[in-house]
Specification:
The complex is a heterodimer of chains A (about 325) and B (about 140). Chain A is built from twelve helices and eight strands. By secondary structure, chain A is α/β, with parallel strands linked by helices. A seven-stranded parallel sheet of chain A has the order 4-2-5-1-6-7-8, sandwiched between helices. In chain A, helix 1 (about 10-15) packs across helix 2 and helix 1 (about 10-15) packs across helix 3. The mean pLDDT of chain A is about 90. In chain B, helix 1 (about 25-35) packs across helix 5 (about 120-140) and helix 2 (about 50-60) packs parallel to helix 3. Chain B starts with 9 loop residues before the first strand and ends with a helix. Classes of the chains: A alpha/beta (about 325), B alpha/beta (about 140). The interface of A and B includes residues 3, 95, 98, 103 and 110 of A.
């Protein structure tokens, strides 16, 4: 019987650094499941990461993000790049279950060894990503994929965590979503590095394009130091627009590197990740303290919420945080 | 450092063969999600090679195959063989759809762990997967 990919941490780390797909997949599982082996594995591979360009693809539900991703992967492969894809879909807050369907649009890459596609459920995390997305991106980076695409869940107005993770964020819009108001509300317009109007063969394309131009014009006025932002059209279902978008993504990387911002974005991402880990660990301890000691008093109104919070912070600062 | 939550069972659902009937596999997918599982759809017209690659990349616990257009006596054993060759035969391989009773022995001998024929109750499928999962976790903990 062949060795099951259970493997030791050292074995999995060594194999994934050599590009072994099953080992990389198992590493992502450990990290996604918050298995203790995940943290040990990350320690072994972190020094080998930092080369890939992480490209976020985000936009409202139905914008065609998966189809666009599929089209871009084809273009990157034609240019000889190896591509990892992390496709995030929402988990049910009630059952924890999820239907992860982004692969359906990417079937043609299934057996290409230069493409690794992994579906992730959000598992209770808000913001458009799973908690494990940062870690999974590091694994694919360490495996030697040149491009790591992170396709978010369909986002609404402020679920743009992906900008903290990605070097380059592509915002996908489509005609006919009542955009005048939506585009203004969304923090999205300030966040993107490249804008794409997909399904550009549809009615309403011209109106959407004009609204986007207007928004980007206003953005350019309020952020005069930033370089101009490309606004591109695509019909992803027919493969139209791929070369222009990939050119823009490559151009963005070159511009980031020239300005020293590639490293800066990578370290900003690491900072986010570190703070998220600290936040999660502290929150777990805070929840335990609250539930074990304080909430009964708050429930019976002997203790007010502010006072309770002060108690918890005090106890956190006293205790051994490593526990 | 952190308390470990019970991780959800990950299930790949794929259709082998050239038919385009998705009702059955969609119903199963929703039933599994309601049972708290992560269900990964791969879409239609999959080859054994595509399913094997997806199962490995997704590192699923269970590979569920829907087959409605015959050909399963070739495609399912081939998938089982590919998974084994890739060292991924720790995954549970389950099939359902139009599979005649007389094909069962051949498929089981080829490495298909369980076959749910027409008319199977989704609750039985959920119960079967949960039982298998509980046994597997006990085995891993031991």
């Amino acid at each position: 019987m062949p060795a099951r990919p259970g493997g030791s941490v050292a074995d999995i780390a060594q194999r994934l650094l050599a590009g072994d797909i099953a080992a990389g997949a198992r590493a992502i599982r450990w990290l996604d499941d918050r298995d203790p082996r995940g943290a040990a594995l990350l320690a072994a591979i972190f020094g080998h990461s930092g080369r890939a360009q992480v490209v976020g693809i985000t936009g409202p539900p139905g914008a065609g993000k998966s189809t666009l991703t599929d089209m871009l992967v084809t273009e990157w492969r034609a240019r000889g790049r190896r591509v990892g894809v992390l496709a995030v879909d929402p988990s049910s807050p009630f059952t924890g279950g999820a239907i992860l369907g982004d692969r359906v649009r990417m079937g043609r890459h299934a057996t290409d060894p230069g493409v690794f596609i992994r579906s992730l459920g959000t598992r209770g995390q808000a913001g458009g990503l799973s908690r494990s997305t940062y870690d999974a991106a590091l694994v694919l980076d360490a495996m030697g994929y040149n491009i790591v695409v992170v396709e978010t869940v369909g986002v609404g107005q402020d679920e743009i965590d992906v900008v903290n993770l990605a070097h380059t964020t592509v915002i996908v819009a489509v005609p006919g979503l009542g955009d005048e108001i939506q585009a203004v509300k969304a923090g999205i317009m300030e966040a993107g590095d490249i804008f794409v109007v997909n399904k550009a063969d549809r009615d309403g394309y011209v109106a959407t394009q004009r609204q986007m131009e207007l928004m980007l014009h206003l953005r350019a006025q309020s952020l005069p130091d930033q370089p101009p932002v490309p606004l591109l059209r695509a019909v992803a279902a027919r493969g139209e627009g791929a070369a222009e978008i990939v050119d823009a993504v490559e151009g963005h990387r070159i511009a980031l590197e020239a300005a020293g911002d590639f490293t800066r974005r990578t370290s900003a991402r690491a900072r986010e990740q570190v703070l998220a880990l600290v936040r999660d660990a502290l929150m777990e301890r805070a929840i335990r303290i609250a539930d074990d000691h304080l909430m009964a008093d708050v429930t019976t109104r002997r203790l007010d919420p502010y006072e309770a919070a002060r108690h918890i912070l005090h106890r956190l600062s006293q205790g051994s945080l490593a526990a | 450092m952190t308390t470990q939550p019970r991780r959800p069972l990950r299930v790949l659902l794929a259709k082998l063969g050239m038919d385009t009937h998705t009702v059955g596999v969609t119903i199963i997918g929703h039933a599994l999600r309601e049972a708290g599982m992560e269900v990964i759809f791969t879409g239609l017209k999959q080859t054994p090679e595509m399913v094997c690659a997806a199962a490995i990349q997704e590192d699923v616990d269970v590979v569920g195959i829907s087959t409605l257009s015959a050909g399963h006596t070739r495609s399912l054993p081939k998938l089982a063989r590919l998974l084994k060759e890739a060292g991924a035969d720790d995954k549970l391989l389950v099939a359902g759809g139009v599979i005649p009773q007389e094909d069962k022995p051949l498929l089981e001998a080829a490495g298909v762990d369980r076959i749910f024929t027409m008319g199977s109750d989704t609750r039985d499928i959920v119960a079967y997967l949960n039982d298998w999962w509980a046994a597997r976790q006990a085995e891993e903990a031991a």
